[in-house]
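Hello Y.,

Per our agreement to keep a running log of every chain we model this quarter, I'm adding this entry. I've kept the format consistent with earlier entries: sequence first, then predicted structure.
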Amino acid sequence: MDKQLQSLIDEIESASGKIDADMHMTNVRILDVYTETFYPGALVIRNGKIVALNPSWTVQAQQVFDGRGMCAVPGFMDAHVHIETTLLTPEALASVIVPWGTTTMFVDAMEIANVLGIKGLKALLSNTANLPFRTFMQVPSRVPTAPGLETTGGVLGVEEVGELLDDATAVSLGELDPSKILEIKEEYLKKILSAKRRNKICNGHAIGLDWDQLNVYATAGLSDDHESVEYQELFERLRLGLRALIREGSTERNLDKLIAGVIKNHLPTEDLLFCTDDKHVNDIAGEGHISYNIQRAIDLGMEPVKAIKIATINAARHFRIDHLLGALSPGRFADIVLLKDLNRIRPEYVFKAGAPVATGGKLNREISGEYPDFLKSTVTLSPGFRPSDFTVPAEGDKAKVRVINLYPDQIISLSFVSLPTVPELGLTDQGLISVKAHRKIPVVVG
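Predicted structure for the entry above:
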């Protein structure tokens, strides 16, 4: 008999009490994300899936887990992340995100793809089946990111993108910046159509767009955006049918302002998601992962159930996998987080597919992975590279210098043109420049 068919038969028979379950999780308060209520009960698990809630028949199971009255909520989801910016491999990353309750990552691995193309991308994600969290692929849409300006090596054309979209783990076309749409670059429009033909969504990257530009962007078929910094930006995206990802990374601290606006304006939360985008391992270890987003939303005044929904069922629905994940209901995978206190997002236990993967803030087992040598020798420098290469050449007693000024906790930057005299440039023996006078020219860049 077909293996999938046999598994389904086993799950149905286990749901009706005809055969033993794998696990009976008892004495928990179950979060129902559909009615936004909690109720006391138990979950019956078979083949890694929830097959029954509070059955009337006596459950026979190979393992009984006493939840000791804790709150059982779905595993948390990061709706958009670049794994490479954590500075860890997926295996190492597990040790810091899973104990915080993250059981699903939607990964746009565009950095490694820009260097090594489809070969590098597949190598990075080759061990996902053995990880204690799930990985879904957002197929990188812009490799190289800036054609003609970069020599990073990787290329994902329309054909390669189509091949990756056919992968079982692919749920979307990865973030596409506005220039590719507003300037009508056909290659990228073909990638959008490729995703649409496969009934998969297209992720946005709509930084700095005004209302008219957002209209064009939405018309092209982009489904979401994670670049809102001000509440008005988030509101406009929602009004045009773009789901809004509320980002809280290491250099992109957007959550407080956006959630405060959502709460103040009584905005519905069904079309909001949480993501980290770029979060350094030290920040994850110290403050949390998606758990931090949930906790900050609660601290700012959001009801815990709504904050948890943003991190669970909302993401699952957006990526069209809510038949698999996002809720503690029959037929879904038993990815479960147990919390002692709903107002303090500190997971006591984390389960993936009904198996405990983290306990008391620690991963239950070490995860290792092997990577091919071609991933480890990708950085090359010119033999003649030296600090003086950074020197800005100038003649006379004045020089025009372009510099970038950064906002704290944001990736928005300002372009400045400085007109200092040469002594004011402050050339150091490393060839670096310290500018003391400038004239502001605001430019939003992503």
